[in-house]
Amino acid sequence: MCSSDLVIEIKNITKIYNLYDKPTDRLKEVLFPKFSKHKEFSALKDVSFDVKKGEILGIIGKNGSGKSTILKIITNVLTPTSGEAIIKWKIAALLELGAGFNMEYTGIENIYLNGQMIGFSKEEMDEKLDDIIEFADIGDHIYQPVKTYSSGMFARLAFSVAISVDPDILIVDEALSVGDVFFQNKCYRRFDDFRRRGKTILFVTHDMGSVIKYCNRCVLLNAGKKVAEGSPQEMVDLYKKIMVGQWDERDENSEKIIDQKVEKVLEENKKLWKEQMVINPDIEAYGDGRAEIIDFGIFSTDGNIGNNVYKGDYYDVKMKVRINEDNLSPIFAFKLRDVKGSELTGTNTMLENIDTSNLKKGDIVTVTFRQKQYLQPGQYLLSLGCTAFEGDNLVVYSRNYNCCVLGVVADKGTIGVFDSESQVNIVVEE
User: Fold this and answer.
1) What is the rounded CA–CA span in Å between residue 195 and residue 54?
2) For the chain, is the Cβ count within 10 Å smaller at the N or the C terminus?
3) What is the pTM of this model?
């Protein structure tokens, strides 16, 4: 990579905070330097990565992983304990919306105040004022003290001021989730505009669908360390492993995970679909064992396995079942629920009028449910089952309840749980 293509270089950054049990301990340490009264907390540990011109780089990780700390170092809000951040272009950050606002000032006054803090003259802010007011869309409240604003109005104004700058590099830290759904849509349109114009963007969010949709590359942090960097899909899958405790933090060479660990794991475990996915470590697996679910996976139409699918695409939910007894007529089923447990969709072989009475002991059956994804972007829980009716009684041979997450990614969302594929037409009458 040519060095001229790099607009941000993060070189071995470490950030250590001194923590004190009591405020007086800090004073005692100043007065008596030989007696240490603090504990060290490493918010970042030897983190390095580069950002290229025109790239959208996602930074993801659990709360407390160091995401906000690295952004504050990049924007000179914090100074690293060691290492350096080299920034080559003009940068704007949407970090803590409303930082620097004076609650006694009106909205108009705060626009000019923040403009001065960013480095713009009054004349330059005069030119931007109308656009900021229009984007915020808070009416006459713009002339009132911001202490009278609702949280939504405050977020609107803060975002409008922050986005009014035309930077070379834009840093977004969860700022696209402000306000109501309509204002969020407006924020995303502005974000899309930056993206289309080839701006360099650092994007920090807990919305994994947005990471996959927008980012060219992704850096994954955990406990202050860089775990890995690579494609958004691979990093999101690895992030989910960390979230459910399936990643081994003892891997000291985890930075090379894309070239080494992930590909190696996929190769070694390609016989088992579920080992190539992020599964629930607390999966509820039960049944009498006369038939047994031995494997499962989610597949895109091109055959790739993973937890995420795109809205509007066809995808396959597959499970392998071993038949352990003769004379069974199993019902194979799948179901999707939301995080609250509400059933959203599903089907089974009985509803689909598929005869399963010819199966015999020792058979290994692959059951494929091909679906078109109409659900809205979000996270859903997949359950699989193999059951049967014996007389009037439902018996469970094997059931994997909430076995994994199915993530839906989309370029556009609509309102509600599913997309009814509305077609909107406007006719102007003569």
Assistant:
1) 8
2) C
3) 0.59
Classify domain 276-409 at the CATH superfamily level.
Answer: abc- transporter (atp binding component) like domain (2.70.50.60)
**Cβ atoms of residues 299 and 315 within 8 Å:** yes
- With tokens 């290994």, the residue in question is 364
The pLDDT, as a whole number, for residue 150 is 83
The whole-angstrom separation of Cα 338 and Cα 259 is: 34
Task: Confirm if 299 and 334 have CB atoms less than 8 A apart.
Answer: no
Distance, in Å, from the CA atom of 172 to the CA atom of 90, rounded to the nearest integer, reads 15
pLDDT at 208: 77
Dig out the tokens for 190 from the structure: 């502005």
The answer to whether 360 touches 321, Cβ cutoff 8 Å, is no
E strands, 128-267, in order = 169-173, 200-204, 217-222, 225-230
The pLDDT value recorded for residue 194 is: 79
SS3 46: strand
Amino acid making up residue 39: K
What is the residue whose two structure tokens read 């049944």?
287
Mean pLDDT of 304-312: 88
Superfamily of domain 3-90+167-237: P-loop containing nucleotide triphosphate hydrolases (3.40.50.300)
CA 35 to CA 355: how far, in whole Å? 78
